[in-house]
Design brief:
The complex is a heterodimer of chains A (about 230) and B (about 280).
Chain A (H helix, E strand, L loop, with lengths): L1 H33 L17 H24 L1 H7 L3 H31 L1 H5 L3 H23 L3 H17 L6 H4 L3 H16 L28 H6 L1
Helix pairs in contact in A: 1-9, 2-3, 2-4, 2-7, 3-7, 4-6, 6-9
Chain B lengths: L1 H21 L2 H8 L19 H4 L2 H9 L1 H6 L3 H9 L13 H16 L17 H12 L35 H4 L2 H10 L4 H8 L5 H17 L6 H24 L7 H14 L1
Classes of the chains: A mainly alpha (about 230), B mainly alpha (about 280).
């Protein structure tokens, strides 16, 4: 059993991240160069906008901020541990993280319901999109599960996950940091690898080409310019 | 591509196996055994290993080191006696153990037993009573308000104990309210803190070890916990979940307020018009 566990640790936490990283890089570049016009997440707003808001907004703000938290702990673990050195600040950070996680799942479920119940939307949803929804729901649910069952993740992420991930980045993988973690935490990590692996094949590619200048560019006025519109005026 | 992946995996597996074999036996003993055993320093959670090869034959000891649980399951009387003496604590399987490694460990124990003072006699712990300042400092170290000198994370990150804060401590690792009794007092607990025996703690504190003063204060805190006999607070996890759900509701209300002027009807009328055209 121990040998099997060691073998699985090597395959899943040592080899898999590299397979994922290579796939991610190569396919992202290949798709961008060969099929640039598919490099997006098609908007479905025109097909239905009643529940669109509750799917789109909570999901995106939730996931962006939760991911930002993960990145902060990855890049400045000492800073996160210093912030958490006062229990009240630790609790505030953890409650905020959990609240954002719940907002993310609310958005995801609203999105799923919307896609299931609107015929026009079901038509434009590919099997790959459904797979992606499944992976995202798994990722967010395991994340919320980890936050509630195994607090305080912001601190132990900085102490265990950060050195593990850096060991991967520095090409000297050390799985001892993750080998003893509970299965739910391992499931969250592995599902993240799977998500990164399918990333360049799916609509998630849009994250790599977010039009950031939209945040600060001047607003553009868009006018209808058809004959009927002109007559109507 | 498959061949490349396969060869990378084989190389990685071989790399790990090679590392384990090359590791120095004394370092291995220090990293994996001293949290429960001494050589000539008295009993901790496990027995003092001085002269163990004279008490029991090498073949038995080697088999026990390789798989402690199988001897116990088989009902071996000596193994059962060891478990009873350790108050039910079963020796965990040592990471990366092999027959060769077990033999090397027994050689090391034999050689160290022959010395008057072994390097593995364990942490020397004073029996003087702890002061309230020690206990207070231990609590501060546990909660993280006083950072650990070598940069290790505070205990609260993964562990809980009584009286550490509103929403309690972490739940990734065991509750430490009874750890003082579980590790059989000062000596056992100090040895554990000096070289933690679990995979995750070993990985985390290997590069950020606790210093002697910190161990002293933490042991004082855990001794106090054990004597106070306080009860575990189970409500903290539920409170945390409720706070998170409340926060999410607030967040959703906030988003609704920020985008209160959002387009609600324009496209709907366009799509309805479009679908009715399609029908007719």
């Amino acid at each position: 059993m121990t040998t099997l566990n060691q073998f699985l640790n090597v395959i899943l936490f040592m080899a898999l991240p590299y397979v994922v990283a290579v796939t991610f890089l190569l396919v992202s570049i290949y798709r961008y160069r060969t099929q640039p016009f598919t490099y997006s997440s098609l908007s479905s707003q025109f097909l239905e906008n009643k529940s669109h808001f509750w799917a789109l907004v909570p999901f995106h703000y939730g996931i962006i901020l939760v991911l930002a938290g993960h990145f902060l702990a990855f890049f400045i673990p000492r800073g996160v541990l210093a912030w958490n050195s006062v229990p009240l600040r630790l609790y505030a950070l953890e409650i905020t993280g959990l609240a954002l996680g719940v907002m993310t799942i609310v958005g995801l479920i609203a999105g799923l319901v919307r896609r299931f119940t609107t015929p026009q939307l079901r038509m434009v949803t590919s099997p790959l999109d459904w797979t992606l929804y499944g992976l995202l729901v798994t990722q967010v649910l395991t994340g919320i599960g980890v936050a509630v069952m195994y607090p305080w993740g912001s601190s132990w992420f900085a102490a265990t996950m950060t050195p593990y991930l850096w060991s991967i980045v520095k090409f000297s993988p050390d799985t001892s940091y993750v080998a003893g973690l509970p299965w739910l935490v391992k499931a969250h990590i592995l599902n993240a690898y799977v998500l990164l692996w399918v990333w360049p094949f799916t609509r998630l590619a849009h994250v790599l080409v977010v039009p950031n200048p939209y945040l600060w560019r001047r607003t553009q006025v868009v006018r209808w310019n058809s004959v009927t519109e002109t007559k109507a005026r | 591509m498959r061949r490349i992946i396969l060869s990378v995996t084989v190389a990685l597996v071989a790399g790990i196996a090679g590392n384990v074999t090359a590791q120095d036996t004394a370092t291995y003993f220090k990293q994996n055994c001293v949290s429960c055993h001494t050589i000539g320093g008295g009993r901790l959670t496990g027995p003092d290993l001085k002269g163990v090869t004279q008490r029991k034959d090498r073949d038995w000891l080697q088999a026990f080191i390789l798989n402690p649980q199988s001897k116990i399951t088989a009902g071996d009387p000596y193994a059962l006696k060891l478990v009873e003496e350790a108050r039910g604590v079963v020796m965990p399987p040592a990471p990366g153990i092999s027959a060769e490694r077990a033999g090397l460990l027994l050689d090391l124990i034999e050689a160290e037993s022959a010395l008057e003072v072994s390097q593995f006699r364990g942490v020397q712990v004073s029996s003087a009573p702890f002061t309230p300042v020690d206990v207070e400092r231990g609590l501060a170290l546990f909660r993280g308000t006083q950072p650990l000198k070598n940069g290790g994370p505070a205990c609260i990150s993964c562990h809980s104990a009584a009286g550490v804060g509103g929403l309690g401590g972490g739940k990734l690792a065991p509750d430490l309210m009874r750890v003082y009794e579980r590790l059989q007092g000062r000596a056992g607990l100090s040895a554990w803190l000096a070289a933690p025996g679990t995979v995750t703690m070993r990985a985390v504190y290997e590069k950020h070890p606790l210093d002697e003063k910190e161990i002293h204060s933490l042991v004082a805190f855990f001794e106090k916990q054990s004597m106070a006999g306080t009860q575990r607070v189970a409500a903290s996890q539920l409170n945390f979940l409720l706070c998170g759900l409340g926060g999410a509701v607030l967040g959703l209300v906030l988003l609704d307020t920020i985008w209160r002027g959002r387009l609600r009807g324009v496209r709907r009328s366009l799509t309805q018009e479009q679908s009715s055209r399609g029908k007719s």
